[in-house]
Every structure is written in structure tokens, then in C-alpha cells.
# Entry
Amino acid sequence: MMESEEKIVQILCERFPFLQGRIAARKAKRIFSDALSKDEFMQIVAFIHDELNFRRGHLVVGTDEGDNLGLLYVLSNPEFILLNLRESVPKANPVVTTLSDLYPSLMMHERELVSLFGVIVEGLPKGISYPLPDGWPEGNYPMRKEWNPDYFNRNTLAYDPPQEKEEQK
Amino acid sequence: MINAIIGIGYNHRGLEKACESRNYIQDLYIIERVCGICSHIHSTAFCMSIETLTGVTVSKRAEYIRVVVAELERLHSHLLWLGIAFHEIGFDTMFMYTWRNREKVLNLLATIGGNRVNYGVNTFGGVRRDFDETINAEILSTVDLLEEEIKSYLHLALTESTLAVRLVGVGKLSHEDAIKFGAVGPVARAAGIAEDMRVIEPFGAYKDFPLHVATDQGADVYGKTVVRILEMQESLRMIRLCIKNLPDGPLTVRVPRRVPAGEVLTRVEAPRGENIHYVRSNGTDMPDRVRVRAPSQANWHGMQHMLQGGNLADVPITIAAIDPCYSCTDRAIIIHSENETKLTDWRKLRQYSIDWYKKQGVDCSTLKL
Amino acid sequence: MAQLLAIIWKALVIPGFLFMSSYGFLVEFVDRKLYARMQNRIGPPWYQPLADFLKLIGKKTIIPSDADESMFRNMPIISLAAIASAFLYVPVLGMNAVFSFSGDLIIVLYFLAIPTLAMFLAGWYSRGVFATLGATRILTQMFVYEVPLFISLLAPALLAGSWSISGIAAYYAAHPLYALINIPCMFVALVAFQCKMERAPFDSPEAETEIVSGALVEYGGRLLAFFRWGSDCELVLILSLFSAIYLPFMTGILWLDLILYFVKTLLGLFLLTLMRATMARLVINEIVRFCWKYLTPVALLQVVFNLLIRRAL
# Structure
């Protein structure tokens, strides 16, 4: 039942030895990887697209891992197997390269990462900010865990966390 | 039509952030309200995610009930779409007829769940509503009624010439483009891609009664229309099979409050296409991350491509053909009269309505948005 | 003096302006009610068109800052005036119109073109995207239906040997069987009238889902009320023209002729509403193709045929 998933994992581990032990087929039609660095991830992408036929991009899930930001890319092949690759970048310097030239359908999801997580996606074509409005204040990344919607004033668009007020006392 | 720029996100509600600060039961109510038309399928996907994370197996009866409500939802969603499509091309008579039939489905859903949208049938571990003999009889009689009507729609779609003139060749999205831009659901099936999550990742009755996937090779709006009508016929067949073979069993199974740590991706077939839910838990009773990828989000990418090269008259029907879940935009009015210039933006409009209601004796200023 | 008063009475009250306006509201009600019943709905009550008119009159008139104000304000009045003038030449009570002379058919057709041009100018001088699109569609549609409309109204005139509408009505009332010869161009005229009134399937200039409301998108309040009043009166005018030229069953007795008039015009209205309810909207290039490919040739054939028959008589 899981032969094709196991086979894909095997091919990937043979081709990229650094993936050994970090990628597994957890159940039918689901292959998950552990967090990869940006360089490791970019090495794999072209191979996956061209050789393994994972040509369809479904979504990119951004996650907040504390010091890092995680990006989970969900891709699929004609057999409808989902390959979930996790890329991890430090929050202080969250730079990734765009996949929208290989997977045009991921462009909107990458824009969402730019708005909501503050990821810098190199190579992303210029476009309308999504989903946050145009006048959204810089530096406010709502989906990061430290951003609390209660401290955000919707009328003045200012973010005032209470610690600063306590320090002023 | 030379080019179009897609600018959406006007009604971003921040649901995913809201889910992180509430427990799973509260999140079920939030997720159910992601969409009004496909609310049940969103709550089904969320419940399935939690059930996978906690390792719980749902009873067969509950799964069958979930399938029946999902297919009823698909029926009313496609009838809505059919009416809107007719309205977009100026055929108001069929708009009225299809929506009248939709009322029958909505009444049925109100009998089952208590509400016409957001029926609240799902809970973790099963369903909250049961089907008894009266409901079964009502479902079967409504299905019989609708079968005749939908057959006539198919006949109309295949034979009416003004319809063909407006829909054929409009909004083309070829097989390769559909894969490249990640189109899902009827949009992809109209381009010949035989992909349906009910067949690829089946649950419940979809496992026992295999589904025929309706495809068309036209890749245009006409193909999408035909695909949706054929899907309605499949839904009717599925509902009949489920009701006639409804197994006995408990409605719910106990699910622990704290969900063990892990992550899961669930895919289900909403009326508009493939719906992906990603849930990551950290062992507490609040999720770490919830991500909902509704099918309309996937279908927008191909929109620019579909609109290029068409006429202005084809724009509404092309946009409607992907069956988007829209919301209203922000509003502002500027009125110049002889004496003054007034700018009324959303906040002032809201204050105006609060004052107006206060004069009627109703105080809604304390409502928190 | 008494004659002058009689003419003023006829022009302003019956069968003139007041009669046309009230019948216009009644015709709008019948149209909407029939349309609703065909769609399995209930439809509005009998006073709805009057209620809509009164409500619109009471609203504030807002003119876009870019628009040409004098054109914006004057177009509705010009439209209404043209229709009211044209109505005087169409026979309503009996075979004689209020005024008639040889050639008044052509005058009425010219008057009928004025409301369409007024709407085009109204849209053009509103200076918005949707208004301009709607205005150009109105003109495009006008170019294609004017020819079959004119020809199909001229063919019965050729057979009757008269250029006056009252003369045509009198001729066919005397020889009712000859009216059957005109049946092909009667259908052409029906479709061309539907085009003129911009009703489905030819309502591309006013396509609400594409260009909001077409040329009249910036109109509201009193000015829109006058435009809609003009449309209702235009409907009465073309129904009267239709029944005078193609359905000329007259008895000579006044009250019987009045009842016959109502029956004939309502029959025409029923056919127009049926067309409206059963078809989807055609795109503007489809309308152009349809008019040139089907309507005009049939009308031309009818003219040739009628000329031959006239020769033979």
C-alpha cells in the first residue's frame, strides 16, 4: 500500500544523503520531512519538480517555532501523494527564495507569509499585499506568536504592548 | 480584456490567529464559520483532523450521517451556483427556478440541523444530530423531487442555444494550466483532470459506495456547468444509497480534551474543490497552528489567465465559474452638496446606524466586533 | 375656439399624454406581473409602477462632478417630449389618430429614435466607465436594429399604399385578410421592438451584471423617474404602433374599438414578455450578427413580396 511512498523516500535519501533519517512516509499518501535549512531545501526542489514529478503546489503553511520561522511546503504528484517539506529560517533573518517560478500556485501563499510572518521572499514578483490591507503598519506580523491582537489599536493602527507602559511607570 | 490584477483579502478575519488562543471545542465553531455555503465540510475536515491526532475511530453511523449532510450541502451549493451563473448571463427565469429548488434543500437541512447554514451537525468523535424515520422519509422525497428538476437542467444545458453561445469557449483553462495554477474541484474536472478527494481520500460511505467522477474535456465555463450538474446527480444517488443503508451504532465516541502533540493534513472535497486543513497540536487543549486552505484560494491563481483575451461581457461569468466565496468590501461615501462636503467612512457609517437604532430604542453600541 | 380646446383635450388627456402615461404604468405592471408569474413568483401589486415613480420623484438628485450638468438634466425631458409628440400620430380610439397626414409614419419613426439617442447622450455625458460602455452599446445596437425595424414597418405601408399610420390602419381594417401577408415582417418587427426597448435577450446596453446599469448608471431621483416614465410611454407607443399596423381589426364603434385596442396591445405585450422570460442575454456582437443575418433579409424579402402583390392588385 505504501510502496510508492517508501520508494520516493528511498530515492530522495539516495540522491541527497543529508536527508537520511530526516524524511519519512508517516502514513498513506503523506511524506513529512524534518526542518531543513534554506540551502538544503533549495538543493532538493529542482529534483523533486523535474525528476519525481511533484508538479503541483497546494499551499505553504507558516509556523512560528520560537527563534525560527518554519515553512511547510505541500506538494503533490499525479498519484496524489502529498510531500510536505519543512524549511526553517531564523526569525532574525527570515530570507527564502521564491518557488513561484516552478509552482505559480504558491505565489499567493508566499505573499501571505510576507504579510503575516514577515518572511522575505526573494524573487517574488511585485504585487498587491495579501491578505492585509495596503496601509498596514510596518513591523506588525500578526501570525507571530509574540503579536497579541489585544494590544493593537484598530483606529490608530498602533501596537502598544503593556510592558512598555509598566516600564514608563 | 487585456489584463486583470487580482486584489483580494478585503475581509481577512484573522481566524487562524483566533484559533490559536481558543480551545478545540471553541475552534470547531470558528472553523464551521469559515464559509457559509460549505460550513459542514470545513467542520468535518477539522473533526477528522482532531480524530486522527487523538487516534479515535468514528462509528459508521456517524460517518454516513456526515456524508449525507455533505452531499446535501453540495446540492445546495451547486444549485446556488447554477442560479448565479444564469443571473450573470441575464437568464433570470432559470435563476428563480434553481433557487426555488434550493429552498427545498435548505428546508431539509434546517429540519436536520436546526439552521439553514452552519448546521452544527459535527462534533469531535461523531455527530450531534440523528436521523429518524421521518427525516429519512423527507430526505428521500426531496431527492425524488430534485431528480426530475436536475434532469431538466441537464437537458437545458445541453440543448439551449443562447446558453451555449454565452458559455462555450469562455474562460478557458487548459489541462496544463489547471495543473500549473493549482486549480481544484469542478474547475479542474472541467479541464479533464479526474481528481476528486472523495475518491482519493475517502471516508465513510465514500469507501463503501465508489463515486463516479464527472469530467468534461471542454475546459471552459460550459464544461464547468455540465460538470456541476452531473455532480448534483451523483450527490442524489449517494444520498439515496446512504439513507437506504444507514448502519446502526453510537453517534459519538469519547475524545480526550487534551490532544496529543503531532501534526496532520486532512483533505476533503468541498463543493468548490479540495479543502486542506493543517492542524498542529502541542499536547494542550489549544492548538499550536491551524491552517485552512479553502478551495477558492487555489482557484484564484488561474483567474488572471482565464480572463485575458475575453470580452467584458464574459468577465462576470468567468469569475463566477470558479464559484468564489466572496465577502463585501470596505465602503466609503463622499457626498458634495451645496453647503458642505461630507466624507462618511465605515466607522462613521457604523456610528450612524448605532444612532439610528438608538432612536428606535435598541442599543447595539456595546456589541464588540 | 372649441376646436382648439378639443385638440388640446385630445393631445393632453385622451388619447394623449395622460392616457399614455396611465396606460404606461398599467403596461409596466402587467409586464412585471407576467414576468414574475412565468418565473413562479408572485409579482408586484397593480400600483407598483406608480409607487416607484412617486418614490423616485421624492429622492435627492445627485449629479457627478465630471458630468455635463445641462445635458444630464435635459435628456430625460427630451426623451419624454419626443414620445409624447409621436403618440399623437398613432391611432388609439378608432382608426384616426389625433393628427394624421401622409408621411406621419416616417415622422413617428424619427421620433422613436430620439429617446435612444437621448439615453446615449445621457450616458456619454455622465463620463463614467460604465456609462460610456453602456452608451456605446446603445448606439451599436441602434445601428443594427433600425434597419430591420424601418423596413418591416414600411412593408405593410407599401402594400396599403399609404404613408400615414391612420391610412394603413384604415386599409387593413377594410381588407383584413391582407394583414396575413405581413406575418413574417410582424415577427421581425416584434423582435426589433424588443431590441429597441433594450429588453432581454437584447438588454446588453443595460446588462446589470456587467456594467451595473449601462448609460443611466449615474441617474437617480427625479431625472431617473422621468427616464423610466419615458420608457413606459415608449412601450405603450410601440405596442400601439404594432397593433395599428399589424393587428388592424376595427369595428368603427368607439367603445368596442377601445376594448379591441387594449386586447391587441396586451397581446403584443404578452409576446414581448414571453421573449424576455425565456431567453438569456446575448452579447453585443451576437446581437449585431443576429440582426444582420436574420432580421434584415426577412424584412427585405417581405418588402419585395409586398411590392409584387401591390403590382398585382
In short: The mean pLDDT of chain C is 89. Chains C and A do not touch (no CB pair under 8 Å).
